[in-house]
Amino acid sequence: MYRIGIAAFAALSLASLVGCIAVQEEEEGIVGVAPSALEFVNALNPNALNPNALNPNALNPNALNPNALNPNALNPAALSPAALSAIRDPGAAGDLSRQLLRYVVSCAFDASQSFSFSWTDSEGTVHAEVYWGIIGLATQWETSALGHPKQQFISACLASRTNWYGTSVTISSRGDHGAIDKTDNPELSTYTRLEGAFWGNLFAPSPYLNACYDEATRDHARSLSRDCASGHLGGSGAVQPCGIINIVGSCDSACEPLKQRGMYYPSCASNVNGTVDWTTKVITVFLP
After folding, report:
1. Is residue 208 domain-shared with residue 275, that is, in the same domain?
2. 57: phi > 0 → left, psi -120 to 50 → alpha, else beta; which?
């Protein structure tokens, strides 16, 4: 269970997710404590995932792939000069880059791992940043390159934690990964309303994200300020996606049936360059 807090995914400029920029300090993970039933900031800002807004002042797909951000590891020594410049930028773009990096770290690392660096603001004050891991989807990224399957899990994690409003919401994230497999976990009985699922790859040459929704709970999800699985309803009633998160429709048509033990979709389909590709690297979200 994770708490989606105000402002988060605003930071690496990876995928055009539209929304207001809101800022809230990320709650630090407790070192040595497993993420089960842990609450933390999850409201990634849609504006931070924008491959169409690439610039040298914000992290982008070229800084978030095995050839740039993490050829060897997710640590300051492995970052490209452009990525380091982005997270050290004292301006608004730097704020976004640091926010998204915080989310990347919290998705990938567990509570015993962290990412540390410093930056200097426009008034000359040095800020020492320490971003703690929480979920633990790719703990080995600290010392080795991020493989394709983990790229997909990190992408799904970021998409699932994106919020149109930057509103704090508590969710239960589930999937076929030891860090989020909630089989026999009490969350299964307290978070019973299926919102939908998220999958994709922000590290691909052409970054993409997909989402599907549960027909029966769309109104409930929207009542909790969770719009990105089914789309945000604009003033005219038109459905607007959260940036590049492509809404493929009902999960019943896009995914294999829910796995009853653990309650998550075992695989969902993407249309990549005209080819249907099924992935098991899916994060399914349930709401209270």
Report:
1. yes
2. alpha
DSSP designation for 179: T
Is residue 79 scored above 80 in pLDDT?
A: no
Residues 15 and 132 in one domain: yes
Q: Are 53 and 92 in contact (CB under 8 A)?
A: no
Reading the block at residue 262, the tokens are: 């653990």
Global confidence as pTM: 0.79
pLDDT at 42: 56
Give the model confidence (pLDDT) of 232-244 as tens digits.
Answer: 888 787 888 887 8
Tokens of 276: 């249907």
- What pLDDT, on a 0 to 100 scale, did the predictor assign at position 44? 61
- Clarify whether residues 94 and 54 are in a common domain: yes
Q: Report the amino acid identity of residue 96.
A: L
Instruction: Report the 10 Å Cβ neighbour count for 16.
Output: 20
What is residue 101's predicted lDDT score, i.e. its pLDDT? Answer: 85
Q: Do residue 137 and residue 271 come from a single domain? A: no
Give the model confidence (pLDDT) of 263-276 as tens digits.
Answer: 999 999 987 667 78
**Same domain, yes or no, for 138 and 213?**
no
Residue 185 lies in a domain: yes
Strands 245-250 and 208-213 turn out to be: parallel
Please tell me whether residues 142 and 186 are part of one structural domain: no
Residue span of the structural domain in which 74 resides: 2-152
Say how many CA atoms lie within 13 Å of 171 toward its Cβ.
Answer: 31
Distance CA 143, CA 153 (A): 18
Q: With contact defined as beta carbons under 8 Å apart, do 65 and 155 qualify?
A: no
- Is residue 42 domain-shared with residue 183, that is, in the same domain? no
For 115-124, what is each residue's pLDDT tens digit?
999 999 999 9
Residues 141, 200, single domain; the answer is no
Give me the number of domains the chain comprises.
2
DSSP calls for 67-98: TTT-SS-SSGGGS-HHHHHHHH--SHHHHHHH
Tokens of 263: 């309650």
